[in-house]
Design brief:
single chain, alpha+beta, two-stranded antiparallel ribbon, elongated, binds zinc ion
C-alpha cells in the first residue's frame, strides 16, 4: 500500500502562479529558482541602497537614473518572456 503525502496548492510570491506544496517538509514560497533568485537579488539591492550614505545628494539623481535603466533590461510584454514563469 502506497501512502502519499498530502499536497496543497500555493501561490508564488513573485509571479502569482500556483504550484504544489507538500504538507510536511520545508514550505517553498516560490514556484521556481527564477522567482526565488529574483527575490534574493531584489532584497540584496534594497539592502545595498539602504546602506548608502545619502547625505551628499549629488549622486542620488545618478543612482535613480541607473535604477531606471535596469527596467530596460526587462521584456516589454509578457509574450516576449520565453519561460514558464510570469515575471
Ligand atoms: Zn513564480
Amino acid at each position: 500500500m502506497i501512502i502519499q503525502t498530502p499536497e496543497f496548492f500555493i501561490k508564488s510570491k513573485v509571479c502569482g502562479s500556483t504550484f504544489k506544496q507538500k504538507i510536511n517538509g520545508r514550505h517553498r514560497e516560490y514556484c521556481n529558482d527564477n522567482c526565488k533568485n529574483y527575490t534574493k537579488y531584489l532584497n540584496a539591492l534594497v539592502k545595498t541602497i539602504d546602506s548608502i550614505d545619502f547625505t551628499n545628494h549629488e549622486y542620488v539623481k545618478s543612482i535613480k537614473s541607473d535604477l531606471f535603466s535596469v527596467v530596460n533590461h526587462m521584456p516589454k510584454k509578457n509574450k516576449e518572456v520565453n519561460h514558464d514563469c510570469n515575471i
